[in-house]
Amino acid sequence: MSRSIFRKRRSITVGWAIVVSVAAFTFFSTLSFAEDTKEYTFGSGSASGIWYPCAVAMAKLINENVPGYHVTAVTTPGAARENILRTHRGEMELGWAIPDFINAAYNGQGLFKEKKDILGWFQSYPAVITIAARKATGIKTIADLKGKKIAVSTPGSNNQLDSDNIIFPSHGLFPDKDYKSIKIRFPEAVQKMIDGHIDAVCFYMGIGSPGFVQMAESVDLNFIPIEESAKAKIQEMEPAFFFGYLPKGTYKGVNAPVEQVMMNYSLFCSAKLSEDFMYKATKAVFENLDYVSSVNSAFKDTSLQNVYKGMTIPVHPGAEKYFKENGIYRTK
């Protein structure tokens, strides 16, 4: 064998050795990273909603500020209920929900046949249970809704159950006895209101909902206030509810503040998460609230002062530690 051929083969051998060494280093470095990094999942809702982009933003903050963890936000067609069930099964660690769902899940009531292994994280921005009627119907009070057709969302949805089981019964009106409960999605309800096929709607929505904007711009509406006499009954049936005002000018036709039922959307977590992680994750989010709000303006109403407002289950000790450090204590 000539020295030239020998040198060439030796060069090839050394080259392959370097390639193999680099590949091995990359493989074992990646393996080491995978072993050292805990992967967590953050459940939200539909891709077109508010929960998903806010979950993506919060996951990014956690990833950048809490070493050793990587959080991935995912869409969930079943939203709150799916997030709770998958967290209980160990498929998720963080999630969005609504307060009465997490209360029922924690206590094993209603739709949840057994107690779920979850804890509260914090309460976020408010949803308003907005009741609006076509002005042409003459409806100005909830009592005026008797005999009318009211859209309340899809069958079995939280919106439908709360409307038909809490909001209207607290005012002495019962579905399919005193009014016709129309079980359809909100976009369909908007169109049917515009077309005059239904008389009123009752839907959870953030303040300034595009659907209500469209409705109010297309047909004259009356926004219907909650009656003072119904408040105690409403809160007895659902402690997570509180009362506030739809501000003047929110929609065309809102010429003065309108008192409505409200609730703050909830974030929750697996009860199995460590105190250290939840403390650091909470710190990462609350020290960067402006960033999450820049992703969706609805989140701007999230604040340290309201983290317990409407929270009906125990909060994770790690999150609670951060809140206490910042002078926020649970009062009841």
Helical stretch count? 11
* Count of distinct strands: 10
| Low confidence ranges | 1-33
Helix content range: 25-40%
C-alpha-based Rg, rounded: 26 Å
Derived from helix and strand composition plus strand pairing, the structural class reads alpha/beta
* Biggest beta sheet summary: 10 strands, mixed
Distance between the termini: 89 Å
- What shape does the CA trace take? elongated
Describe the structure.
The chain has helices at 3-36, 51-65, 79-88, 99-107, 158-167, 186-195, 210-218, 231-237, 275-286, 289-295, 317-325, and strands at 38-43, 69-74, 94-97, 118-134, 149-151, 180-182, 200-205, 221-223, 242-246, 258-270. It is built from 11 helices and 10 strands. Strand 1, helix 2 (51-65) and strand 2 form a beta-alpha-beta unit. With 332 residues, the protein is of the alpha/beta class. Strands 1, 2, 3, 4, 5, 6, 7, 8, 9 and 10 form a 10-stranded mixed sheet that branches. The N and C termini lie far apart (89 Å).
